[in-house]
Amino acid sequence: MRALKPSWWVLAVCGLAIGASACKGGDTEDGVCVDDRTFFQQKIWTIVKEANCAGCHNAGGEAKNTKFLLTPETVTGFIDANMTIMRDVAAYEKDGVSILLLKPTMTVPHDGGRLIQADSPEYEALAEMVDRFRTPVTCGEATRSQEHFGGVVLMTPEETLRKATINLAGRLPTASEEFRVATGGMEALDVELDRIMLEDSFYSRLEQIWNDQFLVERYVGRDEAVDLLDTDFYPNARWYMPGDEDNPRDFSGENQDFLEGARMYTNDAVARAPLKLASHIVRNNLPFTEIVTADYMLVNPYSARAYGITGLQWEDPLDPTEFQPGQIPNHPHSGVMTDPMWLNRFPTTETNRNRHRSRMVYWFFLATDVLKLAERPLDVASINDHNPTVNNSNCSVCHATIDPIAGMLQNWDADGNFNPRDEGWYAEMVKPGYGDWDMPYAARATGATLLGAQIAADRRFATAMVHHTYRGLTGQEPLLFPTNPTSADFSARLVQYEVQDRQFDAMAQLFIDTNYNLKAIFKELVKSPYFRAKGHDDASDEVLEQVGELGQGRMLTPEILDKKITAVTGLRWTDRDGDPYLLQENEYLILYGGIDSDDVTIRIADPNGIMSGIQYRMGNEMACRTVARDFTQTPEKRRYFPFVEPAFVPRDASGFAVAEAEAAIKKNVKYLHWHVLGERLEDGDPQLEATYQLFLATWEELRTSGAAPGLGECRAERDFNGVDLAEEQRVTEDPSFAIRSWMAVVTYLLSDYQFLYE
Predict the structure, then answer these.
(1) Phi and psi (nearest 5°) for 24?
(2) Whole-prediction pTM
(3) What confidence score (pLDDT) does residue 2 get?
(4) Cβ–Cβ under 8 Å, residues 119 and 113
(5) How far apart are CA 744 and CA 737, in angstroms?
């Protein structure tokens, strides 16, 4: 197994600490290449940080009026942005020497003083960077990724198909899908992923992923969403309710069945409109930039009436699942940013002035957490400026970023209504705009629309979509640039960040190249080690630390586990009323790490004792409910037991092995490991033997204990659809003790790590 080489090793052999010449051209005598971006990230940015150049050279700092403005490392794409600005600045020279070398050494006047010495290693590194700006050095990215992922064991295409099908569609692959991928490899997997992403269940999963971000499911149920619609702007919001003297409503001509569920159908459609927009865009292969640029919203026949939207032709005006694009009268649309529910979920106040909304725009659509721009202690006593958000660098470092976008959303009030201010925007705030562009005063009425167009053209939008999809598929957060070079794991974390950053950047480019088709990101992530890794050739702590968290290991969310249980066992895990345990807030949804989009908005990824108890209860109950029921079907229709019958036992009455039955039991154990756990094991594998021994030990204990043959609550009197079985089809007793032994096996497998985690 090849040892992974951390970035600090590469730097050492290149001799970066002592000068540029050892790495001239990017190659060393050992054949190691360090490209310009890696050199900048690992060497130059450290110098910039230690010299605190960014303390002044930022959008709100003392040097904000200079050309040399640095992007903080908390902003996505900061390496490329800062390389670009430093390349531009380096081109300015005096007597043939770059100003990038003259200023920090005080060879020419510098308001920030001398930051480095002319004969220091830092100066030599900067000189190397200036030289690289003139003569760029590039290296093969494929080699870098191969080195980092060398030794990582990936799922087979067939295993990847299974994991992706469960994750994206909430089902197991069909036999034909498995065959095509088993014979066609990754190319066939690519085709199957395209097919999976045409299923309705995929779009439900997509909406779930986006609700984890937008959290608008908070308003589902009762009148939670409709109550947020201001009747001054939406007089027909509660169209399904009796009117009053000022607004009488005549329901005499309405279908009463239509009105009976109208309240729920209206409210939930209003609440979920931002999620429906996301799935509509993907379903129709539209550019996902429409999430911020769409001049429409998604409505069903019920919410259309609430918003006063007319002129839509419905296939079935009673169908609450039919959604179409619609436009609210006198309401300029710009994707979710102008949706009343999105605006209410991320509210503002007279003093906040859309800054919270601006922050969320950065987070959702520009992959930037603006709260990290000023993660340092703030001395309140030092703030003695007039209008400190503009004039005090402690404040302006954030406000110079968030206030311009806040101003572009100026027409949307605290209740999410299109309600332009008669007096215009606040003169004491930073001018509305985007980056270096100031929004013209005459364009203020269309600020949100202009903002959407600017975001759509920003590469950070593509990166943000990669990040959100990664979160949804893996449950992990994208890596952040490590900020403490003295920490013991700094080198490993830097390698991980660098590789992931490049991988994600390539996915972002593919997203752009496919006209912003979000499915392209899903496919690339599924095929990447971040989804497919399942082990490493070298499990030493040192190597695993270098590689970081990849692939398997995510505890399934309640929603995914609920679907996986159903897919594998044939039954949903429900209470006596038929309500799914894992999806009810008053049962296990929250206890098992889910969210309610209101008080609980962050999923718990690490198991605790309560979760373990839920897992074991599920395994035990689902084995009880399904094992005997599976035996009521013919072998070709069984999920669990295509190779055995209840009469198959491993020993005869005299205790001698029954070879044929024993072979069939072991064959079925092998099948169960694939069906339940998704692992292909070879005959003789220790895990297969352990499972067989569990079956055998349980059977021996039951056989010798004098246990009664009755199955009690685990008897099978109904089929998997809940239909009563004929008397001769029912399985109510277990005289051979094989059924209860199989229950032990199924309980064991359903409680296994590989079933509960992906």
Answers:
(1) -50, 125
(2) 0.86
(3) 27
(4) no
(5) 11
Of 452, 446, 515, residue with least CA distance to 292? 452
For 118, counting Cβ atoms within 10 Å of its Cβ (0-12 exposed, 13-18 middle, 19+ buried), the class is middle
The mean-pLDDT minimum among 47-56, 570-579, 608-617 falls in: 47-56
CB 358 within 8 A of CB 409: yes
Beta bridge partners of 405: none
650-652-654 Cα angle (round to 5): 135
- Determine the distance from the C-alpha atom of residue 658 to the mean position of all C-alpha atoms in its chain, rounded to a whole number: 51
Q: pLDDT per residue over 340-393, tens digit each?
A: 999 999 999 999 999 999 999 999 999 999 887 765 544 555 555 555 555 455
Contact predicate 745/668, CB 8 Å = no
**How, if at all, do strands 324-326 and 97-98 pair?**
unpaired
> Where is 153: in which H helix or E strand?
strand 152-154
pLDDT (mean) for 412-417: 95
> What's the DSSP call for residue 326?
E
Contact 757, 615 (CB under 8 A): no
What tokens does 344 get? Answer: 């209410």
Radius of gyration of the chain (CA): 31
- Expressed in angstroms, the distance from the first to the final Cα of the chain is 26
The 10 Å Cβ neighbour count of residue 175 is 8
Q: Residue holding tokens 């990230």? A: 41
Bridge-based pairing of strands 437-438 and 97-98 is unpaired
Q: Tokens in use for 660?
A: 């044929």
What would the mean pLDDT of 82-111 be, rounded to a whole number? 88
Report helix, strand or coil for 45. helix
**Residue/partner pairs of 607-611 with CB below 8 Å, 24 or more apart:** 607/555, 611/555
**305 and 236 in contact (C-beta within 8 Å)?**
yes
Neighbours of 338 (CB within 10 A): 25
Would you state the pLDDT for residue 207? 98
Separation between Cα atoms, residue 462 and residue 278, nearest integer Å = 15
Q: Find, among 162, 144, 3, the residue nearest to 534 by Cα.
A: 162
Q: Residue 201 belongs to what H/E stretch?
A: helix 200-214
Length of the chain: 758
Q: Is the dihedral of CA 396, 400, 405, 407 positive or negative?
A: positive
Which residue type occupies 259? L
Residue tagged 């300029």 (tokens)? 332
Query: Dihedral sign, CA of 458, 459, 463, 465?
Result: positive
**Spatial contact of 165 and 171, defined as CB atoms under 8 Å apart:** yes
pLDDT tens digits, one per residue of 103-140 = 889 898 888 888 888 888 888 889 998 999 888 887 76
Q: Could you tell me if 114 and 105 are in contact, meaning their C-beta atoms sit under 8 angstroms apart?
A: yes
Of 72, 78, 81, 75, give the one whose Cα is nearest residue 54: 72
Q: How far, in Å, CA of 274 to CA of 322, rounded? A: 15
What Å distances lie between residue 490 and 7, 211, 496, 546, 739, CA to CA?
10, 34, 10, 10, 54
Q: How many CB atoms lie within 10 A of CB 101?
A: 20
User: Element (H or E) spanning 536, and its range?
Assistant: strand 533-536
pLDDT (0 to 100) of residue 424: 86
HSE at residue 419, side-chain half, CA atoms within 13 A, is 12
Tell me the C-alpha distance between 517 and 272, whole Å: 22
Percent above pLDDT 90 for the chain: 65
Rounded Cα–Cα distance for residues 609 and 302 (Å): 44
Distance of CA 592 to the CA centre of its chain: 18
- Cα(4)–Cα(143) distance, integer angstroms: 12
Distance, in Å, from the CA atom of 314 to the CA atom of 754, rounded to the nearest integer, reads 45
Residue 58 and residue 402: Cα distance in Å, rounded? 14
Burial class (CB in 10 A: 0-12, 13-18, 19+), 578: exposed
Q: Which two tokens stand for residue 500?
A: 């992931």
- Nearest Cα to Cα of residue 205 among 164, 169, 171, 173: 169
pLDDT confidence of residue 3: 31
